[in-house]
Amino acid sequence: MAEGTPILHSNPSSNNHASFEADSSILKIVGGHRLSGEVRVSGAKNSALVIMAGTLLCPQDCRLRNVPSLMDVSRMSEILASLGVKLKRHGDTLEVDARHISQSKAPYELVSQLRASFFVIGPLLARLGVARVPLPGGCAIGARPVDLHVRGLQAMGADVQIEHGTVYAYVPGSNKRLKGARIYLDYPSVGATETLMMAATLADGETILENAAQEPEVIDLANFCRAMGARIRGAGTNTIIISGVPSLHSVDYSIIPDRIEAGTFLVAGAITRSDITVGPVVPDHLAAVVAKLQAIGTTVVEEGLNRLRVVPGDRHIGTDIETLPYPGFPTDMQAQFTALLAVSEGDSIITETVFENRLRHAAELNRMGADIRVKGNNAIIRGVPFLSGAPVNATDLRASAALVLAGLAAQGTTLISGLHHLDRGYDNLEAKLKAVGAKIDRIVGEAPAPSVDVVATTTRPRTDGLS
Asked: Which of 228, 234, 313, 373, CA to CA, is 20 to 30 A from 124?
C-alpha cells in the first residue's frame, strides 16, 4: 500500500478521553452576522461508514477518496483494524487492505460507540461464513432494532442467535457461502438494505430485496460494490437484484458529497439571510430540502453542475414538514428546519415519522426564545421575530447542527455543549462557517452548559443505521 498515516486500533480509554475532551468544550457563537462566499461539502458520512465496512468483502487493496474527517469514521477505522484490516490515511484518501482478516468478532467497547459498526456483520458473514457483532450504540434518537437485518440473513441461510447483547451468525455447510433469497423488508430500512446487499454480493445465486431503501447512500454502496465486480441492479428503486459472484477485486472509489451537510449549509444561508454557495453537491439528492426552503421563502438556484446558491428572500413563511424515507423529506434535516421555522412567520407543524425521541432539540431552542410545543411526534412551531443567545446542550448529532444554526441567527452569544455529537458527523464545521463570515469559536476546557428537561416523544422507530 502507498505510504500514509497508519490507523491503529486504539484502546477504549483513548476514545473515552476524546469524548471527555469534546464534552468539556463549548462552541461560542456571536450571532447576527451575514455569511458570504462558498462552503465546501465533504464526503457523505453515511456513505463512508458503510463503504468502509464493504471493504471487508474484498481480499485486495481498496482506495477510498473523499472520506470525511469525522469521529465516526475514526471509530469505524478502529473497528476494522481490530478485525485485522490495515488502513492508511492521507488527506481525504483512505487505503484499506483487508486481505488477512484475523478476527470475526468486533469488540464491544468500539461497537457500543458507533451504530454503523453493525454493518460489518454482512461482509464478515459473506467473506468468512461467521460473524460475531455486539448490538450497536450511537445517538439516543430511537430504538433502531436490527431485526430486519437478522431476518434477512436468516433467509439467506445463516444461523443467527442473539445472546447477552451479541449477534452470533454463521453459515452452516462446508462451503460457508450464503444462499440467494427473495427478501421483503417490512420497512424500507437503509441499514438492512445495505447489510443484505453486501451479504448478497458473494452469495450463491440471486437475491431480490423488495421494499428496499432508495437513499442515495444505498446507490453509492451499490456503485462501490459494482466497481469491485459485484452484480447489482435496481439500486435506487424499491427492488434490488443481486447476483452473487465468487470474489471481488481491488477498487479506487470516490464517495458522494454529503447531502445532509450540504442541506445544513443551505439552511445556514437561509436562517442568516445570506447569499452563499454550497458545493459540491448532487442537486437531485437535495430536491426535498430545496422545495421546503423555497416554500419558506428562500430561493435556491443551481450554479453549474454541482453547486447550489442560496438567494435570501424578504421574509420567511411557516410551512409543514413530514419526515419520510427517501425521496421524501429526510429525518436528518428535521432539526435544522425546526430552527429555521422557529424564526419564520406564522405557524408550522413538523411531523417526525422516522425516529422516536428526535424532537428533543425543541426544549433547547425554546431556551433561545423559540415557541415550540411537542405533542407526540409533532412539533408545533409558532414563529418568533428573533432568537436570543443562550447556553444550550446538543442532544444528538443533527440537534447539534440545529443549535449552531440558531446561534448564527440569534441576537447575542450562544454557548453550545455536547460537542461530541457534532464531531460525529460534521467535518470541521466551525472552520467552514468561519471562512464565510460566521463568528464561531471552539473553547476547550470550558464547563458544559446546563441541560434542561426534555420532552420524550413516541413514534414508529426506524430500523436502520442512519443517524
From this structure: 234
CA distance 149 to 162: 12
Of 192, 224, 254, which residue sits at a domain end?
254
On whether the CB atoms of residues 151 and 145 are closer than 8 A, the answer is: no
pLDDT tens, 456-466? 333 334 434 33
pLDDT at position 6 is: 55
Residue 460 resides in a domain: no
Within-domain flag for 451: no
Which pLDDT score is estimated for 203? Answer: 98
Q: Which residues are catalytic?
A: 139
Q: What confidence tens digit (pLDDT) does each residue in 23-46 have? A: 679 999 999 999 999 999 999 999
Q: Domain residues for 90?
A: 45-254
First to last CA, the chain: 32
Mark which of 254, 276, 310 sits at the end of a domain: 254
Alpha carbon distance 191, 465 (integer Å): 5
Query: Where is average pLDDT lowest: 147-151, 262-266, 315-319?
Result: 147-151
Answer yes or no: do 191 and 308 share one domain: no
Of 9, 204, 185, the closest CA to residue 110 belongs to 9
**Number of neighbouring beta carbons within 10 Å of residue 307:** 18
DSSP state of 130: E
Answer whether residue 379 is part of any domain: yes
Give the number of domains in the chain: 2
Residue ranges in 83-189 assigned as alpha helix (H): 108-111, 121-128, 147-155
Q: Are 426 and 391 in contact (CB under 8 A)?
A: no
**pTM exceeds 0.85, yes or no:** yes
Q: In terms of domains, do 52 and 190 share one?
A: yes
Residue 301 DSSP SS3: strand
Phi first, then psi: give them for residue 209, nearest 5 degrees. -100, 115
Note whether 119 and 171 are same-domain residues: yes
Between CA 257 and CA 86, with CA 50 as vertex, the angle to 5 degrees is 105
**What average pLDDT does the segment 138-145 reach?**
46
Count other C-beta atoms under 10 Å from residue 228's C-beta. 20
Residue 418 is part of a domain; what is its CATH number? 3.65.10.10
Burial status of residue 11 (CB atoms within 10 A of its CB: 0-12, 13-18, 19 or more): exposed
Longest dimension (CA), the chain: 69
